[in-house]
TrEMBL record:
<feature type="domain" description="Aminotransferase class V">
    <location>
        <begin position="143"/>
        <end position="334"/>
    </location>
</feature>
<keyword id="KW-0718">Serine biosynthesis</keyword>
<dbReference type="InterPro" id="IPR015424">
    <property type="entry name" value="PyrdxlP-dep_Trfase"/>
</dbReference>
<comment type="function">
    <text>Catalyzes the reversible conversion of 3-phosphohydroxypyruvate to phosphoserine and of 3-hydroxy-2-oxo-4-phosphonooxybutanoate to phosphohydroxythreonine.</text>
</comment>
<dbReference type="GO" id="GO:0004648">
    <property type="term" value="F:O-phospho-L-serine:2-oxoglutarate aminotransferase activity"/>
</dbReference>
<dbReference type="Pfam" id="PF00266">
    <property type="entry name" value="Aminotran_5"/>
</dbReference>
<dbReference type="GO" id="GO:0006564">
    <property type="term" value="P:L-serine biosynthetic process"/>
</dbReference>
<dbReference type="InterPro" id="IPR022278">
    <property type="entry name" value="Pser_aminoTfrase"/>
</dbReference>
<dbReference type="GO" id="GO:0019265">
    <property type="term" value="P:glycine biosynthetic process, by transamination of glyoxylate"/>
</dbReference>
<keyword id="KW-0032">Aminotransferase</keyword>
<dbReference type="InterPro" id="IPR000192">
    <property type="entry name" value="Aminotrans_V_dom"/>
</dbReference>
<dbReference type="InterPro" id="IPR015422">
    <property type="entry name" value="PyrdxlP-dep_Trfase_small"/>
</dbReference>
<dbReference type="GO" id="GO:0008615">
    <property type="term" value="P:pyridoxine biosynthetic process"/>
</dbReference>
<dbReference type="GO" id="GO:0008453">
    <property type="term" value="F:alanine-glyoxylate transaminase activity"/>
</dbReference>
<comment type="similarity">
    <text>Belongs to the class-V pyridoxal-phosphate-dependent aminotransferase family. SerC subfamily.</text>
</comment>
<dbReference type="InterPro" id="IPR006272">
    <property type="entry name" value="Pser_aminoTfrase_mycobac"/>
</dbReference>
<protein>
    <recommendedName>
        <fullName>phosphoserine transaminase</fullName>
        <ecNumber>2.6.1.52</ecNumber>
    </recommendedName>
</protein>
C-alpha cells in the first residue's frame, strides 16, 4: 500500500466504534478533579458515598434527563458492569415470562441468548434479520418485554424506536449503547433506553445507564416483591434506590463519570441532542456519499433508512484489500477502522460519533481515495 502524505491525515485519527475518541477537554476535566491545593480536596480517590461524588452523579442524571427531554416520571438509573451486565439485570428485574428479541447483529443476538439460557423464564421469541438489515418488533401474545438495539454496533444498521402497536401492557427495552447521545429519539416510545458511555459519550466502559419509565420501575418492584431470587449486584430495584441517592450499589470508576458528565455538558452547550443528531448525520452522510461514488466501495447496509448515523460500514470489491488499507492507516495514526471481527467481511467500519469532527471524516476519506488510487 502507498504511504499517506502528511497533509491528508486527519487532525485526530481515532475512528473506533468503542472505546471511542475522548476529547481533550474531557481529560482536562479529569485532571482538574485530581488537583490538590488552596484547601481543595481532589474528587478522584474519595468516597463515592460522600457529597462531592454524589453531586457528580446527580449532574450526570440531571444532564441526561435534560438531553433526552425525558417525559415526566422517567428516571436515570445506573450501575456497574456495562450494557452486557444490564442484559442480566433486565432478565432478572424486568422480564416476567417471555421476551421478544429483534436480532440483526452480534449484540442483539447476545441479549437473546441471555434470556434463552435463563431457567426461570420461557424461551424467547426471536425475529431475526441478516446482518446489514434490521428486524422489527411485532405484537405477540404472551410477550411481556420487547427488546432490540437502536443501533447495531457490529453491522452499522439502525432500527426505529417505536412501540409495537396493540400491546400496551408490555415493556419496550432498547439497547442504545452506540446510539445514545448521537441519534434523536422519542423516549416516550420506550420504557427502558439503556447504554454504556464509551461510544457517543466518549467515556470509558464499565458502567450502564438506563432511562426508565414509571411502568418499568413498577415492573422491577413487582418482580422483586414476588420473591424471585436476584443476585445483589444485578438487583435493579437496588440500583433504582441507590440512583435516587445519586450513587451506585458498589464503587464506580469516577474517571468514567467525570468524562461522561463533561461530554453531556458539551453536547447540551452546543444545542443538545438535535445538534448531535445533525452532526452525526453530516459525518455519516459524508461516508455513505463517498461509498456510493467510488466504484470499489458499497455501503454495507443497503436500505438507506436503516443506515446508521454513528457507525458506518463500507464493503469493498474483491480486488481491494480492506485489511491492508486499515493497516496502512494505522501505521499513520488513523486507527480502529477494521470491521467487526465476526462478520468476516472485506470491509471498513468508521465511527461518526459526536466527538469526531466532520472535517476529520473528510480527511479520512481523502486518505482512502489516495490508497485506492495508488494501489
Amino acid at each position: 500500500m502507498s504511504a499517506l502524505p502528511a497533509h491528508l491525515l486527519p487532525t485526530d485519527g481515532r475512528f473506533g466504534a468503542g472505546p471511542s475518541k475522548v476529547r481533550p477537554e474531557q481529560v482536562a476535566a479529569l485532571a482538574r478533579l485530581a488537583e490538590v491545593g488552596d484547601g481543595r480536596t481532589p474528587l478522584l480517590g474519595t468516597s463515592h458515598r460522600q457529597q462531592p461524588v454524589r453531586s457528580l452523579v446527580g449532574s450526570v442524571r440531571r444532564g441526561l434527563l435534560d438531553l433526552f427531554d425525558a417525559p415526566d416520571g422517567y428516571e436515570v438509573v445506573l450501575g456497574n458492569g456495562g450494557s452486557t451486565a444490564f442484559w442480566d439485570v433486565a432478565t432478572f428485574g424486568l422480564l416476567e415470562q417471555k421476551a421478544q428479541h429483534c436480532v440483526f447483529g452480534e449484540f442483539s443476538a447476545k441479549f437473546a441468548e441471555v434470556t434463552r439460557s435463563a431457567p426461570f423464564v420461557q424461551d424467547p421469541s426471536v425475529r431475526e434479520a441478516a446482518p446489514g438489515s434490521v428486524a422489527l418488533p411485532e405484537p405477540e401474545e404472551g410477550v411481556d418485554l420487547y427488546a432490540w438495539p437502536h443501533n447495531e454496533t457490529s453491522t452499522g444498521a439502525m432500527a426505529p424506536v417505536r412501540r409495537p402497536k396493540g400491546d400496551p401492557g408490555s415493556l419496550v427495552v432498547v439497547d442504545a449503547t452506540s446510539a445514545a447521545g448521537g441519534v434523536a429519539v422519542d423516549l416516550a416510545e420506550t420504557d427502558v433506553y439503556y447504554f454504556a458511555p464509551q461510544k457517543c459519550f466518549a467515556s470509558d466502559g464499565g458502567l450502564w445507564l438506563a432511562l426508565m419509565s414509571p411502568t418499568a420501575i413498577e415492573r422491577a418492584v413487582d418482580l422483586k416483591d414476588s420473591g424471585t431470587w436476584i443476585p445483589a449486584s444485578l438487583d435493579l430495584v437496588t440500583a433504582i434506590e441507590q440512583s435516587r441517592q445519586d450513587q451506585t450499589y458498589n464503587t464506580p470508576a469516577l474517571a468514567t463519570l467525570v468524562m461522561l458528565d463533561e461530554q453531556v455538558r458539551w453536547i447540551l452547550d452546543n444545542g443538545g441532542l438535535a445538534w448531535a443528531d445533525a452532526r452525526t448525520r453530516e459525518s455519516s452522510g459524508l461516508v455513505y456519499d463517498w461509498a456510493e461514488d467510488r466504484a470499489e466501495a458499497t455501503p454495507f447496509v443497503r436500505e438507506v433508512e436503516h443506515r446508521s448515523q454513528v457507525v458506518t460500514t463500507v464493503d469493498f470489491a474483491d480486488d481491494v484489500d480492506a485489511a491492508a488499507m486499515a493497516a496502512t492507516l494505522r501505521e499513520h495514526g488513523v486507527v480502529d477502522v477494521e470491521p467487526y471481527r465476526k462478520l468476516g467481511r472485506n470491509q471498513l467500519r468508521i465511527a461518526t460519533f459526536p466527538a469526531i469532527e466532520p472535517d476529520d471524516v473528510r480527511a479520512l476519506l481523502a486518505c482512502l481515495d489516495h490508497l485506492l488510487d495508488h494501489r
